[in-house]
Amino acid sequence: MDEDSRLARWDQRTEVPLALASLAFLVGYAVHVLAQAITDGWRDLCFAVMLTAWAMFAADYGVRWRLSGQRLRFVRSHWLDGLVVVLPLLRPLRIVKLYEAVQRRRGRPRFSLHARVITYAGLSTGLLGFAGALAVYSQERGAPGANMKTFGDALWWTCETLTTVGYGDITPVTSRGRLIAVGMMACGLALLGAVTGSFSSWLIQVFSREDDSASGQGAPGPRNGERPPG
Amino acid sequence: MDEDSRLARWDQRTEVPLALASLAFLVGYAVHVLAQAITDGWRDLCFAVMLTAWAMFAADYGVRWRLSGQRLRFVRSHWLDGLVVVLPLLRPLRIVKLYEAVQRRRGRPRFSLHARVITYAGLSTGLLGFAGALAVYSQERGAPGANMKTFGDALWWTCETLTTVGYGDITPVTSRGRLIAVGMMACGLALLGAVTGSFSSWLIQVFSREDDSASGQGAPGPRNGERPPG
Amino acid sequence: MDEDSRLARWDQRTEVPLALASLAFLVGYAVHVLAQAITDGWRDLCFAVMLTAWAMFAADYGVRWRLSGQRLRFVRSHWLDGLVVVLPLLRPLRIVKLYEAVQRRRGRPRFSLHARVITYAGLSTGLLGFAGALAVYSQERGAPGANMKTFGDALWWTCETLTTVGYGDITPVTSRGRLIAVGMMACGLALLGAVTGSFSSWLIQVFSREDDSASGQGAPGPRNGERPPG
Amino acid sequence: MDEDSRLARWDQRTEVPLALASLAFLVGYAVHVLAQAITDGWRDLCFAVMLTAWAMFAADYGVRWRLSGQRLRFVRSHWLDGLVVVLPLLRPLRIVKLYEAVQRRRGRPRFSLHARVITYAGLSTGLLGFAGALAVYSQERGAPGANMKTFGDALWWTCETLTTVGYGDITPVTSRGRLIAVGMMACGLALLGAVTGSFSSWLIQVFSREDDSASGQGAPGPRNGERPPG
């Protein structure tokens, strides 16, 4: 109980700094990949930012492991957190949580369940797609025979891959690029499936609610005698 | 309460004119994009029609904001209506609602829930696809290296994109065309997912209903003793 | 009531002949499309078979309209039957029903709900795909610039289209071929969505049933005290 | 009853040896396909391993048929087992079951329902994809006009096929390769649909559970009065 509350307090306090570090990591990586013409000083700054953010993620993982009071079970039950330490590019996915935490503190009415799932999965897909486009682009750029020439191409390729349209006008040709692409396909398929499924459920819900309000409002009387108009 | 009823009356009265304006906008845009050889007089007429329709959408938005008695909350809770004012090409999606309203007034028995979701999502996809094909075609036509040469190509590309087949024989090459395409993919995926999901639910429902009627009719007696034949 | 029973008797009696006519139509069409080198006599026979089958479908539609005692409502509520009269190539989809009717008469235990939906939607997809491959192949064969050269190509194209993989190594280039392809995509998407959805539900059902049997069998006692072992 | 228990004992005893035989078959097939430069002695060993494993599968099928005490009904109700005897490359799919059996014996808490469906369907897809990539590669390698040149290409093609992205940069050109590909598409579609569907359900479940815990923890009091904080 005590450890749980200390863990909860730790989570609450580190939420904002870690989210900022995630953003900083993503921005640093984007500058590192996209800005080719920057001087060495800026390049070193990018690396410093990325390293600092990475160190923060690792420290957070360590502290939380400690506070949990568990040994190897922690690694197994928090494998997603461990993966994020190894692949810090996935970390920005947690920014979505921050947004929600901010809203919760302000006490605003939160969205409905479906809207939140769609928002969460949609934003995750967007961040994942952006990080993936950067990573694949950094591998493909300059590879012999590559047809992904600008970052715009990479973004377009990402969109047609995540929606499983897959025209094939742009495809990764390097082994590493393809490996990252496979990871993106797998995650994107699951996340967009969640978006699609939630949207579908939400639409059906809206239509069945409309039934009820229409039978009470638009018609002179209730149609099936279930609810008296008074 | 009073404002609600005034809003409802406004909605009811403006439904038909706004739907006609939506159709007029879509037709005007289609003529503007497809009819290249028309004289300047006709071209100006197209623009006039589109502008008038647009003004009607904006006025409707303003009046409804007023009537709602809300301030910024209205913008947030009616963001879809705001989007339609900015992108009037999406407005024809509301024609679907008109069709339903007409049916309701006539008092005809409405379709089942699944049928309505399929009809609504299917019609929306069709209108969205047509508007998107027009918009992408207007960007791609004439672009260097484009392989979308006729409007028939654009329609074929739309169908293979919305169903996520994505052969890749025809692909947008301009940045704007690709941006519109991404929007179409996202909407189409969600809408067609709703169609597919509803169709699947409906099919399962039909089959389980068939079970019941078969056990009462085709066999000499009820199979599981639930319903006596008499 | 009386009309209903007459309609039911008519359905029961015409089921087998109409199914055979459907098969004959499909075979006749396949021979007509695929067998190029046959003599004119055989070709005329094919046409005769197809015409006879078509006439049987139309007659069946007419008789059922009569027996229903309805006027225009029949057209609206049986629009699928009307569509089949116009596009007799879709008729073989009813063969699936015949198979089920035969099984029911023999009194064999029928499959579970999910298995039947999967079987029905899967077989429908297969028949639809075969008929569509024939129709598209008959349009594409000989068209300038077409890359669908053998019927094997057409079948391969059908499979990659219906599963929405869409490599794009083979694509229809004629307007008619593309029109048929769009119809196939729409139907295939919905039918395969039903197959996928049912399979998913079935798998989840199997796993949750396994839970129950495992807790009663593999472990020394029930895990959650719900069911005593005795 | 007695036969059931003997069948259960047989299943329990043969589970581990058969799983090892499955693995040996898969490894043997992989070596046979991929290792071109091995001497004839090693090649014969591969064949021997594969034949032995195959014989074990057939013997297991025969024994279980005997023990079941059924005649032709066994073939019909265990058609999946029969298929595995004919296509032993599908056998490794049962390794997944072994993993679960091992876990069950150790008494560890098993995963939740959704996690197990995702794990099972995901692992099955992986094994199916690997076996399919081997089979297609063995057909395509050396075929005239084939663009699947290395096994890495085959794996990449498998991933883009199973996720239905289908770029089309690599496609099978031989009839046999295409036949195997169609089988992979059908199975992959169903299995990945199960993964996507379960993930979607799981995500919605997580979000609705979060609702409950948030209303008890983050806010000063429960929001809807359902659960007192004490």
UniProtKB/TrEMBL annotation, chains A, B, C, D:
User: Where does the record place a coiled coil?
Assistant: none
Which InterPro entries does the entry mention?
A: K_chnl_dom, VG_K_chnl, Volt_channel_dom_sf
Q: Name one Pfam family in it.
A: Ion_trans_2
Membrane topology label: Multi-pass membrane protein
**Keyword annotations of the record:** Ion channel, Ion transport, Membrane, Transmembrane, Transmembrane helix, Transport
* Region Disordered, annotated ranges: 211-230
User: In its UniProt record, which GO terms are filed under biological process?
Assistant: monoatomic ion transmembrane transport
Residues that span the membrane, as ranges: 16-35, 42-59, 117-138, 179-204
Q: Where does the protein end up?
A: Membrane
Kindly give the PANTHER family that the UniProt entry links to this protein.
POTASSIUM VOLTAGE-GATED CHANNEL PROTEIN SHAB (PTHR11537:SF254), VOLTAGE-GATED POTASSIUM CHANNEL (PTHR11537)
Protein name (Swiss-Prot/TrEMBL): Voltage-gated potassium channel
